[in-house]
Write a structure and sequence with these properties.
CATH topology: Jelly Rolls
Number of domains: 1
Shape: globular
Helix content: 25-40%
Strand content: 15-25%
Number of helices: 5
CATH class: Mainly Beta
CATH superfamily: q2cbj1_9rhob like domain
Order of helices and strands: HEHEHHEEEEEEEH
């Protein structure tokens, strides 16, 4: 594959505390990472944007085709022992973080698997580091804290206790999110929700 290192994913054990997840630093190949970073859509506002709402170059679209392709799906299926056959995918991108982002949440019930791929310079800020949490109301009760460094992959199984969040940060923070969802209707409604959320943040 041009962009994704599936061998690294396959060789990384699945963690189960506080829920099922896998973290793979350097998941993007060096050449692939450079191409994705160079072609990342220009996003000047906070919020998550469906890929249809941003200007994506041919190189970035090539990366997305690999990300949503059957080989990566099969790798995720094997890692989480889940059947994602015929499950729709949804991709959103972020370029900016607001001070209000990062609140504790589990992701919507329509999502089966969440994949996050970060594309930032080595992270020095205290805020903006994603924490995998054991409880719904304590950001300090975390099992793992992840700096959103370039090429790092986090994938987790969404569940009633898949709490995560981060301390406040304001500024550039680039992340691609891929979700497999229960059915096609959720792609439309979640995309609409992201659009409305971005509009409200723009107006605030």
């Amino acid at each position: 594959m041009t962009f994704l290192d599936l061998d690294k994913l396959a060789s990384t054990p699945l963690a189960t505390d506080p829920y099922e997840f896998v973290v793979v630093p350097g998941f993007l190949s060096p050449t692939g990472l450079a191409r994705v970073r160079d072609s990342y859509p220009a996003i000047e506002r906070p919020g998550s944007f469906p890929i249809s709402e941003v200007k994506a170059s041919a190189s970035f679209q090539e990366f997305l085709a690999e990300l949503e392709g059957p080989e990566f799906r099969r790798a995720i299926e094997a890692k989480f022992a889940i059947d994602l056959t015929d499950r729709p995918t949804m991709v959103t991108v972020r370029g900016q973080c607001s001070a209000r982002d990062g609140g504790i949440h589990t992701d919507s019930k329509s999502k089966l698997i969440t994949v996050l791929i970060y594309l930032n310079d080595p992270w020095e800020a205290e805020g903006g580091r994603l924490r995998l949490l054991r409880s719904p109301d304590d950001l300090e009760d975390y099992a793992l804290e992840l700096p959103p460094d370039a090429g790092l992959l986090l994938a987790f199984r969404r569940g009633a206790r898949s709490f995560h969040g981060h301390k406040p940060f304001q500024g550039p923070r680039r992340v691609i999110q891929l979700n497999w969802v229960t059915h096609r209707g959720h792609v439309y409604w979640d995309s609409m929700r992201h659009r409305l959320s971005a509009l409200f943040k723009r107006a605030a």
